[in-house]
Amino acid sequence: MTRPGGTWQNWGRSASVRPHRVEFPRTVEAVQRSIAAAAASGLRVKAVGAGHSFTGIAVAPGVLLDLTDLSGLVRVDRDRSRVTLLAGTRLHQIPHLLAPFGLAMENLGDIDRQSISGAISTGTHGTGARFGGVSTQVVGATLVTASGDLLTVSETENAEMLPAVALGLGALGILVDVTVQCVPAFVLHAVEHPEDLGEVLDGLDQRVAECDHFEFYWFPHTDRAMTKSNTRLPESAPRHPLAPIGKWVDDTLVGSGLHQIACSVEKVVPALIPPINRLSVKIWGDREFTDASTRVFTTSRTVRFREMEYAVPAENVRPAFEALQALIDERGWRIGFPVEVRFAAADDRWMSTAHGRASGYIAVHRYWREDPTEYFEAVEQIMLSYGGRPHWGKMHTLDAAILRERYPRFDDFVALRDRLDPGRMFQNAYLERVLGG
Ligand SMILES: Cc1cc2nc3c(=O)[nH]c(=O)nc-3n(C[C@H](O)[C@H](O)[C@H](O)COP(=O)(O)OP(=O)(O)OC[C@H]3O[C@@H](n4cnc5c(N)ncnc54)[C@H](O)[C@@H]3O)c2cc1C
Fold first, then answer.
1. How are beta strands 339-344 and 305-313 bridged, if at all?
2. Where are the beta strands (DSSP E) in 36-87?
3. Considering only CA atoms, which residue is closest to atom 19 of ligand 1?
4. What are 258-315's pLDDT values in tens digits?
5. E strand or H helix at 105, and its extent?
6. Ligand 1 pocket, 425 CB below 6 A?
7. How many whole angstroms separate alpha carbon 291 and alpha carbon 299?
8. Could you tell which of 24, 26, 28, 53 is best to mutate to test the pocket of ligand 1, judged by most ligand atoms within 8 Å of the CB?
9. Which of 60, 188, 330, 341 is the most exposed place for a label (fewest CB within 10 A)?
10. How far is the CA of 20 from the centre of ligand 1 (A)?
11. Which residues partner with 317 through β-bridges?
């Protein structure tokens, strides 16, 4: 978000910049004009979505393109259940746009505040061992490249670029539209409850394989896991949504309110964290409901935090998770935020954290007013030792030298960037670090 005085900052308050100027293009031609004008004055350009990345990936010191006004539906291919969306469309706008056509997005992450372009550009994912991240739903896109030209990429046009453009880190050009392969609208039956952590870990492989969308949260200093198991049902299945008041009590009053208290005392009286975590597990989320897919996949996050998330090969989730547990015990830290564990299918996106391997995601969080460095860096070492790849939009310390070894198509991606953006019109400090200059 851009504040009065012209300073932009991200949701997690971990990145900020005062751009040279901010522009709000409403059309594709206006994006082209912005790039031409920036080039003429020697400025770099960066499109920004909802600013929900924790890394500096969206930092735009030159021209910040806010694409909020470039949103909505461009066209629908009813026969193939595909929709083309303008690049600034926010995920929370999409269900309404798809409803008249009986369509839905196949899988989503925890929230829906992001733009479609921001979500795909950083490899945003949800959970489900048979499902990929949001970028795997992309079957086409149009970019404005550094030359100001339009580049169309699809399964039939420039098809070889699709696995790069669909998860392009904002490095290849400005996306102006994105075509998404949708699925018939569906509902999800959600079962959420606290369980014994040891039992969850013992049965993990089977549950991940059998359930459409399985994940769990572990509150440090407890031996309990909050599990979430979502099963896909046809749209005609009877719905039993959460009553609004029950949802508010669970998500806002208990989920966020108690959590806010935990975060506030964390710094002052860290000894209170373990009992608060135990209380959270006791009173949070023993529930079952059935509702439209997007209403189940996504929730709201009212407590501000910072996050690091690593993808490891699925078979390494358990040992990596147990090493993280041991680390927290050894160091004597008091951690109020839960650790989240999710899963995804292998995919072919060159820069995807799940490229070529079935993956598990382990995410750690810290309240935004606390310094996460010591915790995150120690967790990062563990994740790296288990073959980890960091989420592009979440905090990490890796650079191009080490990332190159972890992505088989890294050099192909960099070569494509060299072709599409030889003068580094879309570069910023983060991209320089992770891709090289
Ligand atoms: C509360 C919260 C919950 C989250 N939950 C999840 C989750 O469940 N799963 C998950 O994987 N991640 C999650 N994230 C991370 C988030 O999904 C990603 O960081 C995502 O990129 C944010 O989207 P955005 O629209 O805010 O993009 P931004 O952060 O604004 O931008 C991200 C990147 O996209 C580029 N970009 C944006 N628009 C364009 C465009 N038109 N053309 C080219 N490049 C563009 C930017 O330049 C930048 O490189 C969460 C983050 C927060 C804060």
1. unpaired
2. 45-48, 63-66, 73-77, 82-86
3. 53
4. 666 666 666 677 777 777 777 777 766 689 999 999 999 998 888 899 999 999 999 9
5. none
6. no
7. 13
8. 53
9. 330
10. 22
11. none
